[in-house]
Specification:
Elements (H helix, E strand, L loop, with lengths): L10 E9 L3 E8 L5 E7 L6 H14 L10 E7 L2 E7 L4 E2 H6 L9 H20 L2 E2 L8 E3 L6 E3 L6 E2 L3 H14 L6 H47 L1
Antiparallel strand pairs: 1-2, 2-3, 3-5, 4-5, 6-8, 7-10, 8-9
């Protein structure tokens, strides 16, 4: 049988966690300090520029998120023709596998589902505060440690970082100061109000998206709970 494991300098790899159409995810540890890690690789040995940029985007956004609700990103290292994304390993499995695995010795209680739902709320709050649109929140990208019940979000490959809306307000104020000699007061006020309106629209859209996403996640969690009950 051909081994599916890879050799990455500085790391000992001992398990293949995920074999998808575009990426491979391995579990191992860092040789210098035995730190448990999860390493994500591009499956294509000759990835396109777009795939490489997506990988770098994932690292760039995630590395600045210092939250216990987000899987920590350690480094982005060159590997063959692409990159190796090195992340923390907290012993998590996907939320989907957690609720549908036949190996689970028990059915989760309502309290446990509520704790998971609250964790999802806190994850969305963290993304909102950090001005991040994840774009791919789904059960496969939400991990839970079966023992500690700690919940974390992964995969920022297609995420976007929103610009700071306060910068637009500052620019509007600067425009008002510079334009007093060239524009009427009414025109300046109209420009400022237009900018503030855009801020409110973007904020409302973002909050609405968070609420809608949260509603979907809670429905998913409790639908799985119902599914587990039906199997008993």
């Amino acid at each position: 049988m051909v081994s599916t494991l890879v050799s990455i300098p500085g790391y000992h790899i001992y398990d293949l966690l995920y074999n998808g159409s575009r990426t491979l995810v391995y579990r191992g540890y860092r040789e210098t300090d035995s730190l448990p890690v999860v390493i994500k690789l591009l499956k294509n040995p000759y990835p396109s520029l777009g795939k490489l940029l997506s990988f770098r985007n994932q690292y760039t956004i995630a590395k600045n998120l210092n939250s216990p609700l987000i899987v920590q990103t350690y480094s982005l290292e060159p590997y063959q023709n692409g990159y190796a994304l090195v992340m923390e390993d907290f012993g998590g499995i996907s939320l989907k596998n957690y609720f549908t695995s036949e190996q689970r010795p028990y059915i989760a209680s309502s309290e446990e589902f509520l704790e998971i739902a609250i964790a999802l709320c806190n994850i969305l709050d963290t993304l909102y505060r950090e001005r991040i649109i994840h774009k791919d929140i789904k059960p496969a990208n939400i991990l839970i440690n079966p023992e500690t019940k700690q919940v974390k979000l992964i995969d920022f490959s297609i995420a976007s970082l929103l610009p700071r809306e306060t910068q637009e307000i500052q620019n509007a104020n600067a425009l008002e100061r510079k334009g007093r000699n060239h524009m009427s007061v009414q025109r300046v006020r109209q420009n400022t109000l237009h900018t503030l309106k855009n801020v409110r629209i973007r904020t409302s859209s973002w909050v609405g998206a968070c609420v809608q996403t949260l509603d979907v996640k809670i429905r998913f969690v409790f639908s799985l709970f119902d599914l587990r009950l039906e199997r008993t």
